[in-house]
Each structure stands twice: as structure tokens, then as C-alpha cells.
């Protein structure tokens, strides 16, 4: 069942009720502004890149059925072409294993553990760099995804070299 109409109805009901004078005071009160500041700061700079990195791993890199189209939409054409050229199996695909730990097997789970933005002074190339820590069949690993204009254009190993040079 679609819960969106119910949510919208509840929000409209809540916004119509209550004391209008109290709402106006809360909007102009300095104390109210200070109380709301932490909620406003939840949205971080370039939050989109962190979400792309997390989704890239859960939907593509660590997935049983990789979503190659998601990867292509969120990477530069050159990066996607390099992954396609490195794909050495039958059919059309992308060498997403280059973005994994390199483990051939394991008994543990595969999932994203943590996604974090590198400080500006640690970004070697591009506009931003996102570190993705993950479990790959129970093996810990991380990759640094480099962004330019909101798209992934390079991936670096923990040693700081391109995943393509580490093949």
C-alpha cells in the first residue's frame, strides 16, 4: 500500500492545526532558530557524492546482480569505458571486482561498513574523494572514489594507486 498519501495528509493536518501566534513566535524567536540549527546542518556539503558511493557499492560492486546502469549514470564515460575494457568475461559488463578487496572467497557477508569524505587537503585528484569501507565476503577493504563535477572518474586502492594500475 502506498503510504505517501497518508503521510501528506498527516503533514497537512499538522500544519493547519495549532496556535498561529505560537508558530509565528517560534519562527522569529532566536532560541527557536538555535534549536533548529542542528537539524539544518544534517545536510552535509556534497552529501550526494557520499550517497552515490554507498549506493554504488550496495547496488553494483557488492551485489549479486550488479546494476551497471547505475554505475554508468554516476561515473564519467571514460571511467565506465575503462571498467568495460577490463571486463574479461563473456557478454557486456563492467569489471566491478576492481573496486573490491581482491579476495577470491570467504564465508562472511558483503556490505558497506562506512562512507566518509576525505578532508580537502587529502584529496589528491578531483573535486572530492570519498572513502568506502566495506566487507567483501567477510574480508575488510576500502577504496577511495575520486569525484569531478559530481561523477566518479577514478578509484584508488589503499596504497594510493589507481585500481586499473593495480590489476
What would your notes on this structure say?
This protein is α+β, with helices and mostly antiparallel strands and 167 residues long. It contains 6 helices and 4 strands. It has helices at 4-16, 20-28, 30-40, 47-61, 68-74, 77-86; strands spanning 111-117, 128-136, 139-148, 151-156. Strands 1-2-3-4 form a 4-stranded antiparallel beta sheet, with helices on one face. Strand 2 (128-136) and strand 3 form a beta hairpin. Helix 4 (47-61) packs antiparallel against helix 5.
What's the SSE blueprint?
Elements lengths: L3 H13 L3 H9 L1 H11 L6 H15 L6 H7 L2 H10 L24 E7 L10 E9 L2 E10 L2 E6 L11
Which key terms come to mind for this protein?
167 residues; alpha+beta; four-stranded antiparallel beta sheet; disordered N terminus
Quick synopsis:
By secondary structure, this protein is α+β, with helices and mostly antiparallel strands. Helices cover 39% and strands 19% of the residues. A hairpin with a 2-residue loop joins strand 3 (139-148) and strand 4 (151-156).
Amino acid at each position: 500500500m502506498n503510504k505517501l498519501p497518508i503521510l501528506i495528509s498527516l503533514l497537512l493536518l499538522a500544519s493547519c492545526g495549532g496556535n498561529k501566534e505560537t508558530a509565528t513566535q517560534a519562527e522569529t524567536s532566536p532560541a527557536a532558530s538555535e534549536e533548529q540549527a542542528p537539524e539544518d546542518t544534517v545536510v552535509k556539503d556534497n552529501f550526494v557524492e557520499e550517497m552515490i558511493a554507498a549506493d554504488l557499492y550496495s547496488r553494483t560492486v557488492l551485489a549479486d546482480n550488479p546494476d551497471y546502469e547505475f554505475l554508468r549514470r554516476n561515473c564519467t564515460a571514460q571511467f565506465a569505458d575503462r571498467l568495460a575494457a577490463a571486463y574479461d568475461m563473456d557478454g557486456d559488463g563492467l569489471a566491478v571486482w576492481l573496486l573490491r578487496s581482491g579476495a577470491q572467497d570467504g564465508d562472511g557477508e558483503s556490505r558497506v561498513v562506512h562512507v566518509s569524505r576525505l578532508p580537502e587537503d587529502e584529496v589528491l585528484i578531483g573535486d572530492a574523494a570519498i572513502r568506502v569501507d566495506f566487507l567483501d565476503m567477510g574480508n575488510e577493504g576500502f577504496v577511495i572514489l575520486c569525484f569531478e563535477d559530481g561523477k566518479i572518474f577514478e578509484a584508488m586502492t589503499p596504497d594510493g594507486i589507481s585500481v586499473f594500475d593495480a590489476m
